[in-house]
Design a protein that fits this description.
Layout lengths: L9 H20 L9 H28 L3 H28 L2
Length: 99
């Protein structure tokens, strides 16, 4: 009797991480959720987005380690470290090209 094992491709992991980082960036800006009106609310929004980011990073590492998915873990770490740069600098580069 053979058991089918669900496999999650590293590319899928990286795309999901990029989407999560994009959403957390929008949460930090106040686009998603209530818009911060004071400096304290803005700091709290960025802090909560930061905690969610760290939790997603560590949770993914624990999950992939528990499932013995080394390629998935490597893709997760790489995507989580690269995606904030992509989320921030890609729109800046596009807006500079459109000028």
């Amino acid at each position: 009797m053979s058991r089918a094992r669900a496999r999650l491709a590293p590319g899928t992991v990286a795309v999901c991480d990029l989407l999560v980082c994009g959403v957390l960036f929008l949460v930090g800006l106040g686009v998603i959720g209530t818009a911060p009106t004071t400096g304290a609310e803005e700091s709290a929004a960025w802090e909560s987005a930061g905690w969610l980011y760290v939790g997603w990073l560590l949770g993914g590492l624990v999950l992939f380690a528990a499932l013995w998915r080394v390629p998935g873990a490597l893709a997760h770490v790489a995507a989580m470290l690269v995606s904030p740069c992509v989320v921030v600098f890609l729109p800046l580069g596009v807006s500079a090209l459109l000028r």
